[in-house]
Amino acid sequence: MSIIELLASLSLLLVPLFFYLTRNSWSRAPSKSNPKSYPLIGSSVAIFANRNRTIQWTSDLIQSSPTATVVLRRLLNDSRVLTGNPANVQHILKTRFCDYEKGSKTRQTLFDFLGNGIFNIDGDSWKFQRQVSSHEFNTKSLRKFVETVVDTEVSQRLIPILSTAAANKTVLDLQDILQRFAFDNICKIAFGHDPAYLLPNLPEAEFAKTFDDAAKISSERVATLFPFLWKIKRFLNIGSEKRLKEACSDLREFARNIIKEKKQELSNKPSHETVDLLSRFLSSGHSDEDFVTDIVISFILAGRDTTSAALTWYFWLLSQNPEIEIEILREIKDKSESPVYDEVKDMVYTHASLCESMRL
């Protein structure tokens, strides 16, 4: 076959392939809710241009969309749906949750960090982890959590640190303080382990920094336009992938030490005294250390950044709305004679303000 004939044959193959890959990504005029999309590369230009402000940019797109939903087309028509529509969120996370799996691509991308933990798994394993963990968040457990763990952490650690800073007029990094507060809390209630990060001297939180690095690099994997790049770096063990490997190794060592301590503790006391989440998993017969390690890492992720981010945002909003702060303080004073759990449970205005903060 001559070169000309070969090129002609390749052209016949490439033309339909081109149309297939670009069937949904022909260039169209950009709008506030739809960045310009091109053949083959989709909206990769806009995604790359906004890579350092992704959250703000995508939030702006969603807010500008009449349906509060946008589709971002990436390289080779790899599409992602972003939604802020409450009906869509309920459909995805509740009504038809079983239809929206993480998928093999996501699991592969996050596996080094999350393994087979609840945030990175589907099917029976997900159901089992959710079933066991849900027992930990019933009314009785939450009451114990508030009356013992949180109350102690607030009264003996958080308030003294804030009071000292106020008296000395020193500046605190509130987000760092609340991350330490949340980390101590989640470790105590989930694993019965006190890392004691919220001490007056604010000890070096090396584990927390390592956890942040692992989460950040894993998130960058998800967001990258060219997944093959992180796979090459992982294969060569260089750059961010080398740091991720080291961070994950440290995290798993930390988790294994907690598991080892908990197994020793369980061997020395009756099973009915197993009150924390890790104890429940170990008592359910799961002795696979890697599996339980994945669970530990997932629950640290679930309890640390979510709580601290929500509280940081909440206090910033209060600082901008002093009239709301006055109402909350009034409610706290009115309820302060009640037992701790009842006091918190009956704070209707404070509850509403927290919900509104999270909505915003």
TrEMBL record:
<dbReference type="Pfam" id="PF00067">
    <property type="entry name" value="p450"/>
</dbReference>
<dbReference type="InterPro" id="IPR001128">
    <property type="entry name" value="Cyt_P450"/>
</dbReference>
<keyword id="KW-0503">Monooxygenase</keyword>
<keyword id="KW-0349">Heme</keyword>
<keyword id="KW-0479">Metal-binding</keyword>
<keyword id="KW-0560">Oxidoreductase</keyword>
<keyword id="KW-0408">Iron</keyword>
<dbReference type="InterPro" id="IPR036396">
    <property type="entry name" value="Cyt_P450_sf"/>
</dbReference>
<comment type="similarity">
    <text>Belongs to the cytochrome P450 family.</text>
</comment>
<protein>
    <recommendedName>
        <fullName>Cytochrome P450</fullName>
    </recommendedName>
</protein>
